[in-house]
Amino acid sequence: MKFSEMSYTRPDIDALLGQCKALAAKAAGAASGEELVNVYYEQSRAFADYSTAAQLASIHYTCDTRDAYWKAEQDFFDANGPAVENARVEISRAFLANAHVDALTEAFGTTCVAGMKNAVLGMDDRTVELQKEYNALVSQYQQVYGGALVEFDGKQLTIPQLGPYKENLDPAVRRAAYEAEAAYFDAHRDELDGLYTKIVKNLNAQAQILGYHDYSELSYVRMNRIGYGPAEIRKFRDQVANDVVPELKKVIELRCKRTGISHLTFSDLPVAFQDGNPSPIPGYDARMAAARTMYHELSPETAEFIDFMQDNELFDVESRPGKMSGGYMTSLPTYKAPFIFANWNNTSADVDVLTHECGHAFEGYVAERDPKVPADLECPGMESAEIHSMAMEFLTAPWHHLLFGKDTEKYALLHAEDSFLFLAYGCIVDEFQHRMYQNPNLTPDERNAVWLELEHKYRPWIDFDNLPFYGRGAGWQRQLHIYECPFYYIDYCLSTMAALQFFLLSLKDHKDAWERYLKLVRRAGLASYTELMQTAGLKVPFEDGSIKAIAQQMGQWIAEHQV
What we know:
Low-confidence stretches: none
Shape: globular
């Protein structure tokens, strides 16, 4: 079914909550392991229509945050979602209390019971009102960001549409584009600072109600992190600071030499080549045709997938006024359909987001068609789900010439560099959030000072050159995740460690790398991050010294492939 033909009906929350009570009773009373497994499938299916309605509302709202009808529907789910989630928690509590609960591990692997335990530990009825308030705060942030229009080059542009100007070869144009963006955020400074203060206090209050010191502790439960915690993440960040940052300094030096920019300022960062960054082929239809060819040639599985996505109009990727910034993939379980949202701006990032979100969507497409996988276990934890997307960016490389033509080699180098450099930025975002929630009474200026401190730690090559907004350390407010889904961002770093290994493997044997990837994808959400890494034969980056060799190999490849 085409997306435009998918009908939306606001769900009956009271009926759904009644169904949840009945399912909890069935889970508690199941008399055998087999019966309990069947109830698990039943409860997983029960939420399909609700989830589909919620995602349809979210998609339409983010496609146009100014639409009053879809804003009202988003408000409805913001208000009622916490009660539904807590009803699901009660079902999980009933499963965990059943004497036959081990049957779920035998049927569905290690993540099922562990995930339910995290759900029970992370939420209950006492936090419902705070959850509603948090949802409303996020919607306010989305309206501030999604409604951004700036006057530039004689036009009214969205934030994503400034992207090409930031890559302009004229440093004055780049600087002016950043200043135009900064002016919008500075104009909304008090609002953005106030929203974040409220978010930190709200989430810390939820954490304390549930017995945690602050939200940085609770986040590991709510993010459903299985098999690792703050100590392992701290060890990971330390390895990035000690073993990756020195290699990244070399990458930056090579880029400076390549571009002829002797003193790199923040507004110079997007420029990777003296004659301009790689540009993808223009036009939505041309790119979609190239994507169809690429995925047809990659594998039979991806050929079937891309036909389904394109034939059913499951992409909305062009930027326009009122559209929320960023990109995402979500699933519509009733239709067994993934949906991809993005904001193309005619830079190489358009191809990044296309292959990235197609990686998410491909995994969802495969999992939705496996009858053994319950709907709520189709996707693993976010740190694992991002492996699907970030590895896909590299595994499609043999076909990137279809999207870049003469700029293909430039794109390959830029993509490898940016993926490698991202590890530093991702660690800034993660450490920043830990410090914000552990020190909730910091003033806005003190928060910005922490951000600048971490920039110096992980990206010491950056000179903000007195840029407004960025120069005062407020650049973190552009990062949607910090407001919308706190503590998500380290997931990109953990998955990047997998993606870089897939890249290095593909250089030796692309077919082998793809088969490893398929094996990982087919495990859906039935395995933890560590188990999925082991499934594909990859190094787990929590182990001392596990990152250094990969960083050195990446640095060597980049040095040998200068364009």
